[in-house]
């Protein structure tokens, strides 16, 4: 878990939160960018070991502890910007339109 969380902090957001309550070995991961904390129930029902999304409310800490799943909240903005960057590259490649991603981080 430590290696996975370190990778998230290095590549997505150094301020990410981790609630490490899942199994020792991570075999399955679910990811939904942005504010998809309520979808953690779907991750649990699917038998996932770890769920990564953008946000976490107070209840999530206790809920995932009781359900024995790892939970990482890596920031709403931080988890969504990868898709926008990829879309810009696609538009440039398909249509030759110059695209610039203006990174204006939002801490919430």
What structural class is derived from the secondary structure elements?
alpha/beta
Strand order of the largest sheet: 1-4-3-2
Fourth CATH level, the homologous superfamily:
NIF3 (NGG1p interacting factor 3)-like
Low-confidence stretches: none
Q: How many domains?
A: 1
Computed CA radius of gyration, to the nearest angstrom: 15 Å
Return the string of H and E elements. Answer: HEEHEHEH
* C-alpha geometry: elongated
Beta-strand segment tally: 4
Instruction: Indicate the CATH topology.
Output: Udp-n-acetylmuramoylalanyl-d-glutamate--2,6- Diaminopimelate Ligase, Chain: A, domain 1
How much helical structure, as a percent, in the residues?
A: 40-55%
Distance between the termini: 24 Å
Identify the CATH architecture.
3-Layer(aba) Sandwich
- Class, according to the CATH hierarchy? Alpha Beta
The major sheet is characterized as: 4 strands, mixed
The proportion of strand residues reads 5-15%
Tally of helical runs: 4
What integer is the average pLDDT? 96
Verbal overview:
43% of the residues lie in helices and 13% in strands. It has 108 residues and is of the alpha/beta class. It has one domain (2-95): 3-Layer(aba) Sandwich (Udp-n-acetylmuramoylalanyl-d-glutamate--2,6- Diaminopimelate Ligase, Chain: A, domain 1). A four-stranded mixed beta sheet has the order 1-4-3-2, covered by helices on one side. Strand 3, helix 3 (58-67) and strand 4 form a beta-alpha-beta unit. It is elongated. The two termini are 24 Å apart.
């Amino acid at each position: 878990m430590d290696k996975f969380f370190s990778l998230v902090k290095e590549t997505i957001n150094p301020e990410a939160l981790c609630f490490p309550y899942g199994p020792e070995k991570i075999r399955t991961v679910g990811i939904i960018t942005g504010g998809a904390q309520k979808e953690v129930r779907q991750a649990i029902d699917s038998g996932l070991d770890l769920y990564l999304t953008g946000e976490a409310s107070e209840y999530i800490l206790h809920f995932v502890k009781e359900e024995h799943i790892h939970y990482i909240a890596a920031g709403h903005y931080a988890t969504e910007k990868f898709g926008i960057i990829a879309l810009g590259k696609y538009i440039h490649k398909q249509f030759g339109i110059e695209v610039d991603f203006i990174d204006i981080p939002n801490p919430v």
